[in-house]
Here is the input.
Amino acid sequence: MTPNLDALFQALADPTRRAIVERLSRGPASVSDLARPFDMSLPAVVQHLGVLEAAGVVASEKVGRVRTCRIEPAVLSRAEQWINERRTAWEQRLDRLGAYLAANPEEPS
Here is the structure.
């Protein structure tokens, strides 16, 4: 599945969701564990998790009464790839500009 980059970046635009992703990068966690550090209701945290799941960043599994969430690293890798492609293009442009400026030094006035 190719993640929708718009949904992915929208999901990561919120600081609460980024904090959840940061926590999940250390390993799976239950929804209640994820909600503990936030000053918001459990349903609000569940809404944030829903946005992350819809973007493909997080997957969850319910066993009994406990829903455990885990990060989907392949989806985050797609965002990293997109960013790195932009970085490479800019580095190439800057290299060409540097070569041009070196070959065409400014004449003193």
About this structure: The chain has a mean pLDDT of 90. The radius of gyration is 21 Å.
